[in-house]
Design goal:
CATH class of the largest domain in chain B: Mainly Alpha
Number of strands of chain B: 0
Radius of gyration of chain B: 24 Å
Strand order of the largest sheet of chain A: 6-7-8-3-9-10
Oligomer: heterotrimer
Order of helices and strands of chain B: HHHHHHHHHHHHHHH
CATH architecture of the largest domain in chain A: 3-Layer(aba) Sandwich
CATH superfamily of the largest domain in chain B: MetI-like
Number of domains of chain B: 2
Chains: A alpha+beta (about 350), B mainly alpha (about 280), C mainly alpha (about 300)
Largest interface: B-C, 119 and 125 residues
Order of helices and strands of chain A: EEEHEEEHHHEHEHEEHHEEEEEEEEEE
Helix content of chain B: 55-70%
CATH topology of the largest domain in chain A: Rossmann fold
CATH superfamily of the largest domain in chain A: P-loop containing nucleotide triphosphate hydrolases
Radius of gyration of chain A: 24 Å
Structural class of chain A: alpha+beta
Number of helices of chain B: 15
Largest sheet of chain B: none
Distance between the termini of chain B: 17 Å
Number of domains of chain A: 2
Shape of chain A: elongated
Strand content of chain B: under 5%
Shape of chain B: globular
Distance between the termini of chain A: 40 Å
Number of strands of chain A: 20
Chain lengths: ~350, ~280, ~300
C-alpha cells in the first residue's frame, strides 16, 4: 500500500503527442478511476505507471519513491489486463504462484497466499485447471488472484470488465469494489464505461485528448462538471447543450430557443452578448404549460421512466427524462429550472461560475 | 503482430546488440552465395590457384555464356535449365491440380470407400520417394519411361501433403456457401470452379512456391531416372561438373550454380508473403 | 516429402468441424472420377513399388542375378550383424542429431532476436528466407567453395593458420562439413516457423510476466519457450525427416559418403547398395528399415499434433 504521484507526465509516439502533461496525487488506499473515450490516452497513462511504456517527460512516484526509470519488475505493482493475460500453459495455481516464486518466497508462504486469495475470490475448486478450461468470469477472477497474492503497493486495472457480458460485468464490478475496500490497496482502474467509473471510483480522472479534464469525486463530477466534455460524458442520457448569450449585465442568459433565465447563484463576469453554452440534464427538465415548446420525434418508454427526444423552436435537439408513462401527443412544453443549469463559456466550454465572494 | 521478448520501449543498448547479431546472421547466410557469385565472374585459373576473390572479376559475361550454351564436353546449362523448369512447373501445377480435386472429392461428397481412399492417400506420407527408389525405377523402366520427362514427373506428383492441406482448408468453408450454391442450382463442379477455387487462391499460391522449389531441387530421383544428357536437370548437371578435381572448371561450375539457384530463389522471394502464410498456417 | 507442415484433422478453433461436413453433394460417380488420377498414381507408383520393396527384402539374388531365393529375415539379420552397417547407423545418428540441434538452435536465436524488432522483423525474414529455395546439393556445392582445402576461402585460411584441413581425407571434418551445409539450409525453414510462433504469443502475457517480476531471460525460458513447444516439437520431427532423406544431395555432392564411408548415412548406403552394388536384397531390406523409421516419425508427429494443446 502506498501513495501514487504523477507529475507532468507527457508522452509522444513519434510526432503524435498523446499525453499533454498529467498531474495526479493518489492517497493511500484510494481507488482512482481513469475514464474517457477511446484514444484519450488513459491506457497509455496506466502503462506508464506500470512501466510498460516510458514517459517522454514527467515522473512517477510510488510510495514517495521515484520509479520513473525502473522496470515493471522492480516497481512492486500488480496489473489485471483486459484479456486477463493468464499463462496458458500453467494451472491456475501456478499462474498465481509465478510472481511469488520469482521473488523466492518460501513454499509455505506461497501456498498460504494462494489459498487465501483463492478463498477470497471463490476459485478454490479451479486451482488445478488450465485457463482454457475456464469461463471469462473465472479467468477474470484468476487474473485478480494473481494480482492479490503479490501484495503489491499498487493495483492497476486495464479495462478488465470489457470482455465480460453485461450481467457478469455488473456482478464483477461489485466484487472488485468490495475486494479493493477490504484489501485497502491503492488502485488505478481504467475504463471507457461511465457507469463503472461512477460506481467504482473514490475519485475520477476524466481524460480528454491527452489532458485530465477533471479530477474529482463522482458526485462532484456529476453535479459540477468542469467543462462541456465532462458534462456530456457522465450521465445517461447525456446532458443537453443549448446555445445562449450572457445578458442582463451577467445575471441571466438569453437562450437562442427563446427564453431568458436568470441565474440562481449569482452574476457571471463578461460582457453582454458573450456566447454561452447552457447545459441541463434530461431529468431536470420540468413539464410546464408556460415553458418552451418542444416538437417530439421519438419516445422511448423504459417502464419506470420515459425518455423523449425532440426539437425546440430554433431547431436545437433536446432530450427529456420523465418518471412513469409518457404524456400523449407530439408536443410538450418544458421549463428549465435555474438551479439546474450548468453554464459553460469559451472555446473549450469551460465551466463559468460566479466569482467567489 | 506481437513482440514477444521485449515488453518495454526497447532499451537502446539491447537494440543495438540485437541488430548486430541479426546482421551477422544475414552475412553468414549470404556469404556462400556471395563467394559463388564472385567466383563465377573470374577465370578458372584464378580460382584453381586458390586466390579466392571477394570482388567481381572481368569474366562474368564470358563464363555465363559458356555455362549457358555448353562446351564441347558438356551440354550447356540452357537445356538443363529448360528441363528443370519443365519438371518443376509440371510437378507444382500437376500436384496442385490432382490434389485439389481429390481433396474436393473427399470433403464434399459421401460415397462408399471414402475413408479408405483418404487413408490410402494419407499413408503415402510415410513413403517418400527415397524409400521406394529401386522398385519405382523398375516400374518406370517396365513402362519404358526411363529418361523421359514423364518418368521424372509422374511418380512424385501424387502428394499427400497437398491433399491434406486442401482438405483442411475445405473443412473451413462455411456450409452456407454450399447451400447457397445448391439453391442457385449449381452442381458440384460449378461450385468447385466458382467458389472453391477462388477461395483457395492463397493456398494454391503458397503451395506453388513450396512445390516449385521441391520440384526444381529434386535430386535422388532424377539421378536414377534422368541419366541422358537430354533430360538432365540443372542441379544434377552441376554436381556432375565437379568430376575429378584436376580438370574441374570451377568458374563454370560456379556460374552454373548461380543459374541453378536463381529460379527457385526468385520464386520464393517474389511470392514470399503467400509462402510464409502457407507454411505456417498449415502447421496449425 | 517434408516440405511443409502437415496436420490431418486439425482445423481452426473457430471452425472445428470434426471429420465430416454436414452439407455435401449427392453425385455418385463424380467423386470416384475426381479421385482417380491421384489414386491411380498412388497405387502404381507408391503402393506397388513399396510392396515390392518389402517383398524383395525377403529375397536374395545369386551373383548373376539369375536365381532368387526366399530367405526370410536373413537380409535383415545380415544387415544388423554387419559392423559396417552399424557404423552407418551411428553416422546417421550423429548426422541427424547434429543437423537438428544446430539448425533449430540458430533459427530460434535469430527468430527470438528478430521478434524484438517489430518493424524490422519482416525485413530480416526476407533476408534469411532464401536458403530454403536452394537445393541441398546446391547448398553443398556452395560450401565446397568455402571449405575446399585449395580453392575455398575458409579452407585455405584454416590450412594457412596451421590447421590441417582437408575434408576429403579427414572423416570427422567431412562429417562436420555435411552437418554445417545441411543445417545452413534448414535454418530458414525453422526460422519462419519460430518467428510465426513467437509472434502469436499475446504481448499481454509477457507484460504480465514482466510485472510479476520476470526478467527477459526468465521470461524466455518460463513463458516463451514452453508456449513454443508445439512448434519446436513439430520442427524436430520435420528436421529429422529432412536429415534422414533430403540430405542425400548434400552427401552426394560433397563427399559421396566418404572419406572411407565416414559420412555414409542410411539413405546413401541404401542407394549405393542398390545402384552400384546391385544388391537388391540388401538394398530392399535397408529401404524397409528406412520405411519403418519414417513411419515412426510420422506417427509421432500426428499423434502429438492431435494432442497438441490449443490455447
Amino acid at each position: 500500500m502506498a501513495t501514487l504521484t504523477l507529475s507532468g507526465i507527457r508522452k509522444a509516439f513519434g510526432a503524435t503527442q498523446v499525453l499533454h502533461g498529467v498531474d495526479l496525487e493518489v492517497a493511500d488506499g484510494e481507488m482512482i478511476v481513469i475514464v474517457g473515450a477511446s484514444g484519450c490516452g488513459k491506457s497509455t497513462l496506466l502503462r506508464i505507471v506500470a512501466g510498460l511504456e516510458t514517459a517522454t517527460e514527467g515522473r512517477v512516484l510510488i510510495g514517495g519513491r521515484d520509479v520513473t526509470a525502473l522496470e515493471p519488475a522492480d516497481r512492486d505493482i500488480a496489473m489485471v489486463f483486459q484479456n486477463y493475460a493468464l499463462y496458458p500453459h500453467m494451472t491456475v495455481r501456478e499462474n498465481m504462484a509465478y510472481g511469488l516464486k520469482i521473488r523466492r518466497l518460501p513454499r509455505a508462504e506461497i501456498d498460504k497466499r494462494v489459498a487465501e486469495a483463492a478463498g477470497l475470490l471463490g476459485i478454490e475448486a479451479l486451482l488445478d485447471r488450465r485457463p482454457r478450461q475456464l469461463s471469462g468470469g473465472q479467468r477474470q477472477r484468476v487474473a485478480m488472484g494473481r494480482a492479490i497474492v503479490r501484495e503489491p503497493k499498487l493495483f492497476l486495472f486495464d479495462e478488465p470488465l470489457s470482455n465480460l457480458d453485461a450481467k457478469l460485468r455488473v456482478q464483477m464490478r461489485a466484487e472488485i469494489r468490495r475486494l479493493q475496500r477490504r484489501l485497502g490497496v491503492t488502485s488505478l482502474f481504467v475504463t471507457h464505461d461511465q457507469t463503472e467509473a461512477m460506481t467504482l471510483g473514490d475519485r475520477l480522472v476524466v481524460m480528454h485528448e491527452g489532458h485530465a479534464a477533471q479530477v474529482a469525486t463522482p458526485m462532484e463530477i456529476f453535479e459540477r462538471p468542469a467543462d462541456t466534455y465532462v458534462a456530456g460524458f457522465i450521465g445517461s442520457p447525456a446532458m443537453n447543450f443549448l446555445e445562449g448569450t450572457l445578458t442582463g449585465g451577467g445575471s441571466a442568459v438569453a437562450l437562442k430557443a427563446g427564453a431568458v433565465i436568470a441565474f440562481a447563484d449569482g452574476r457571471r463576469p463578461g460582457p453582454d452578448g458573450m456566447p454561452l453554452t447552457i447545459g441541463i440534464r434530461p431529468e431536470h427538465l420540468v413539464p410546464d404549460e408556460h415553458g418552451l415548446p418542444v416538437a417530439l420525434d421519438l419516445v422511448e418508454p423504459l417502464g419506470s421512466e420515459t425518455v423523449l427526444h425532440g426539437r425546440l423552436g430554433d431547431g436545437e435537439a433536446l432530450a427529456i427524462r420523465l418518471a412513469g408513462r409518457a404524456p400523449s401527443g407530439d408536443r410538450l412544453r418544458v421549463a428549465l429550472p435555474a438551479a439546474a443549469l450548468h453554464i459553460f463559456a469559451g472555446e473549450a466550454g469551460q465551466r463559468l461560475d460566479p466569482p467567489p465572494a | 503482430m506481437s513482440n514477444a521478448a521485449s515488453t518495454t520501449d526497447a532499451a537502446p543498448k539491447r537494440d543495438w546488440v540485437t541488430h548486430a547479431v541479426l546482421l551477422l546472421g544475414v552475412v553468414v547466410f549470404a556469404l556462400p552465395i556471395w563467394i559463388v557469385l564472385m567466383g563465377s565472374t573470374h577465370d578458372s585459373a584464378t580460382i584453381g590457384r586458390g586466390e579466392v576473390p571477394l570482388l567481381p572479376g572481368p569474366h562474368a559475361l564470358e563464363n555465363y555464356a559458356t555455362a549457358w550454351s555448353g562446351t564441347r564436353d558438356r551440354i550447356g546449362a540452357q537445356s538443363m535449365m529448360l528441363n528443370s523448369m519443365v519438371m518443376a512447373l509440371a510437378i507444382a501445377l500437376g500436384k496442385i491440380a490432382i490434389t485439389i480435386v481429390s481433396a474436393f472429392a473427399v470433403v464434399f461428397f459421401r460415397f462408399p470407400g471414402r475413408q479408405l481412399a483418404f487413408w490410402a492417400i494419407f499413408i503415402t506420407l510415410m513413403l517418400p520417394v527415397e524409400v521406394r527408389i529401386f522398385p519405382t525405377f523398375k516400374v518406370i523402366s517396365d513402362l519404358g519411361m526411363v529418361n523421359t520427362m514423364g518418368g521424372l514427373i509422374i511418380p512424385v506428383i501424387a502428394s499427400a501433403t497437398a491433399t491434406l492441406l486442401f482438405r483442411q482448408f475445405f473443412m473451413t468453408i462455411p456450409d452456407e456457401f454450399v447451400e447457397a450454391a445448391k439453391i442457385d442450382g449449381a452442381g458440384p463442379m460449378r461450385f468447385f470452379w466458382d467458389v472453391v477455387v477462388p477461395l483457395s487462391r492463397t493456398n494454391m499460391a503458397a503451395l506453388f512456391v513450396i512445390l516449385f522449389v521441391y520440384g526444381w531441387n529434386q535430386y535422388l530421383w532424377p539421378l536414377l531416372v534422368a541419366t541422358d544428357a537430354e533430360v538432365e536437370t540443372v542441379v544434377i548437371g552441376m554436381v556432375k561438373m565437379i568430376g575429378s578435381e584436376a580438370n574441374t572448371e570451377w568458374n563454370l561450375v560456379m556460374a552454373t550454380c548461380v543459374l541453378a539457384l536463381l529460379p527457385p530463389v526468385a520464386v520464393v522471394m517474389l511470392m514470399q508473403r503467400w509462402f510464409v502464410r502457407g507454411l505456417t498456417e498449415t502447421e496449425k | 516429402m517434408s516440405c511443409c507442415g502437415t496436420s490431418s484433422a486439425r482445423t481452426g478453433p473457430e471452425r472445428a468441424r470434426g471429420v465430416e461436413r454436414k452439407v455435401v453433394f449427392r453425385q455418385r460417380w463424380l467423386p470416384y472420377a475426381l479421385l482417380a488420377p491421384q489414386l491411380l498414381i498412388t497405387i502404381v507408383f507408391f503402393f506397388w513399388p513399396a510392396a515390392q520393396a518389402v517383398w524383395f527384402a525377403f529375397l536374395r539374388q545369386d551373383a548373376f542375378g539369375i536365381r532368387t531365393t526366399f530367405v526370410g529375415f536373413e537380409n535383415f539379420t545380415d544387415l544388423f550383424a554387419d559392423p559396417l552397417y552399424l557404423e552407418v547407423v551411428r553416422n546417421t545418428a550423429v548426422f541427424c542429431t547434429g543437423v537438428t540441434i544446430l539448425s533449430l538452435g540458430v533459427a530460434l536465436l535469430l527468430a527470438a532476436l528478430a521478434d524484438q524488432q517489430i518493424r524490422a522483423a519482416t525485413a530480416y525474414r526476407t533476408l534469411l528466407i532464401w536458403p530454403y529455395a536452394i537445393a541441398p546439393a546446391v547448398a553443398a556445392v556452395l560450401w565446397i567453395f568455402l571449405f575446399h582445402p585449395q580453392i575455398g576461402l575458409i579452407g585455405r585460411a584454416l590450412n594457412a593458420a596451421g590447421i590441417a584441413w582437408d575434408y576429403k581425407l579427414n572423416g570427422n571434418q567431412a562429417m562436420l562439413l555435411v552437418i554445417l551445409a545441411s543445417a545452413w539450409k534448414q535454418v530458414s525453414y525453422n526460422f519462419i516457423f519460430f518467428l510465426a510462433g513467437l509472434q502469436s504469443i499475446p504481448k499481454s502475457v509477457l507484460e504480465a510476466a514482466a510485472i510479476d517480476g520476470a526478467r527477459p531471460m526468465r521470461r524466455f525460458w518460463t513463458i516463451i519457450f514452453p508456449l513454443l513447444s508445439p512448434t519446436t516439437f513439430f520442427l524436430i520431427v520435420v528436421n529429422l525427416v529432412y536429415a534422414f532423406f533430403d540430405t542425400f544431395g548434400v552427401i552426394d555432392a560433397l563427399t559421396k559418403g566418404g572419406p572411407a564411408k565416414a559420412t555414409e548415412t542410411l539413405i546413401y548406403r541404401a542407394y549405393v547398395d542398390g545402384r552400384v552394388n546391385l544388391d537388391l536384397g540388401s538394398s530392399s531390406a535397408q529401404s524397409v528399415v528406412l520405411m519403418i523409421i519414417v513411419m515412426m516419425l510420422t506417427m509421432v508427429q500426428f499423434r502429438y499434433v492431435e494432442r497438441r494443446v490449443h490455447y
